Amino acid sequence: MSKSSRHPSDHMDSSSGADSPEPVAYVAPDVANREQKAVNRSKFLVFLTLLLAVSGAATATYLLMEDEERGDFEASCSFTPKFAGLGSEISTVTRQKVDQLFTAVDAYSSFVASEAKAESNSSWPFVYVSDFSPKTEKIAALIGIQRPSLVITPFVKQEDKDRWTSFVLETAPLWYQESIDNEGINATVEEYMNLTRPFVHHFATIEDETVTVPTRTPGTVSPNWQRYPLQPGVGGKNSKGFLVTCYDLQAIPAVADLIKISNSTLRPSIGFTRLPDTRPGRIDKFVVDSQIMQPIMDQGKAVGMIWLRLPWLEFFQNLFVEGIVGTIVVIRSNCEVDDAIRVLSFTIDGSSADFLGEFDAHDPKYDDQVVTSVILDLNLQSDDIPEGLCVPILTLDIYPTDELAETFETSKPKLYTAVVVAIFAFTSLVFLLYDYLVGRRQGKFMERIVRQDQIVSNVFPTAIRDRLYESGQKGSQDGTLFDPLGGGAGTAGSPLADLFPETTIVFADIAGFTAWSSAREPAQVFILLETIYGAFDKHANRHCVYKVETVGDCYVGVAGLPEPDKEHATNVCRFARDCVKTMKEITVKLEVTLGPDTSDLDVRVGIHSLPLTSQVYPKWASDSRCPTWGKKSVPAFR
């Protein structure tokens, strides 16, 4: 037999004149949707957990590796072997070079004193050192500066000024010629003598013109005497158009203070001086150099001074090898007198250096990594220094920079992070592949479940179907879902039975069907029954009539179950009326294809209202019966 079911509450339209609706489409059970959603949520949670885990692992790996590199860098700044003690190296080399410079200047002052006296057989200040330029070049290698600016300045008393002028006119051409030959200067002695003012003088501006005037310094003066290199500027002259020979150094306040200190202590002294920056593109800029004053001793007293200019920028250049980049060195002075230069900052990049200014240029975040050392302490007693003057103790602070820190950065953090991400990607691919395979298998299984559920839904109402599933789950031995078409789960258990006190049952029988079907092919019989029952199904859906079954040519329906309905009798009558009308229309249309006597078929309808008991045994859902029609089957049905 053929069975079909429609939920009676799906169509409540009782109008007989309305168009017949299309059959209700099958809707998959909620259990399948719920299970699928649960699986999707589980997969999402697993994937999210993996994502969070790899994100945390990758971040932790990167931060740990970066922190390790930062630790290596910080440890390196604290003189670990890996960093080779960069801070200590800079400090040590600077201090050694400063000590070497003062030792060389002290030795050179002793040499000048002895050489001058031996060669000239004269007393100070009327002495000069022969071959002064080549001898100074030799000492330059010890000083550590390529072309140091070095001057011998004797002390000339007031009563010796006239004699000094004669001495200059007599001896200046001698050492001029020696310097011209040694330094390769393209000039003559006569040109230098024409630019020389033989008397001790200083510069003055009179009516917007720079002139030389005799020095006004009372007492002993300090003329700029033998100088290396000879040529102080372009063309052998300074910016004022004159040579600085015999220029009174005591006319320069900073130099005069150093002369006072060294003459009082008989020890070397040092100070800072601002000078114009002559490098290209540094117009209106200044650099700060140190002036070193070393007394020349004769018979226990100072008879003159060696004045050396120490250019710190050149001092730090070529001090280190290539590869040491981004290091800030800060020179600090402890002098607190007015207008004293207290701080100088330089940056060192391998063999090059640059002056940053009179301020502390280091980054405060590297305060805890500073390397500090004293590079110069002349050990002068403050009582020996003239009042108001100061000889600084120089301290060198060495700081790393971001540029230096970057040299310790490697690709390890990124590499390790990439490895973690790659592991996650591989794991995700395996997970996705596994999910695809499982989903494919589950999809096939779900398709089978849906098909089975569709068959069950065609046999039983929705409410009965859900109760059968619940009954199957409770009676299952292996925990699987109730399988309505299988022979396993759900075969045991009590029947599902309900009493419906108010129902109306209808039997619609095709009159003349037995004789008509005996003269037709099975296919023609099927076409007739399919067309008629399909139309009856539409009317049943519209009038809330539940189709119980079809037995041969008899259509059995009932109203008032499985959902109670007070209008059950009315609905059945309307259903019967529409079936009779539809039967006439269908048989007339099918007469062309099924034979001339098809229109003679009619429908007989029986209606009765009564209480009914409906029951379903779960095992019935596994029965499979095939309907038959013909002379033999009709009597058996009756």
Short description:
The chain is α+β, with helices and mostly antiparallel strands. It has helices spanning 30-77, 86-120, 132-143, 161-183, 189-194, 253-265, 312-316, 402-406, 412-459, 462-475, 513-518, 522-542, 568-594, 633-637; strands at 149-154, 201-206, 209-214, 227-228, 269-276, 286-298, 301-310, 327-333, 343-349, 352-357, 371-376, 394-400, 496-511, 546-551, 554-559, 602-616.
Explain how this protein is built.
With 638 residues, the protein is α+β, with helices and mostly antiparallel strands. The chain contains 14 helices and 16 strands. The protein is rod-shaped. Residues 1-26, 76-84, 233-240, 477-492 and 620-638 have low confidence and may be disordered.
Protein traits:
638 residues, alpha+beta, five-stranded antiparallel β-sheet, 14 helices, rod-shaped, disordered N terminus, disordered C terminus
Write the layout of secondary structure elements.
Elements: H1 30-77, H2 86-120, H3 132-143, E1 149-154, H4 161-183, H5 189-194, E2 201-206, E3 209-214, E4 227-228, H6 253-265, E5 269-276, E6 286-298, E7 301-310, H7 312-316, E8 327-333, E9 343-349, E10 352-357, E11 371-376, E12 394-400, H8 402-406, H9 412-459, H10 462-475, E13 496-511, H11 513-518, H12 522-542, E14 546-551, E15 554-559, H13 568-594, E16 602-616, H14 633-637
Antiparallel strand pairs: 1-4, 1-7, 2-3, 5-6, 6-7, 8-9, 8-12, 9-10, 11-12, 13-15, 13-16, 14-15
Helix pairs in contact: 1-9, 12-13
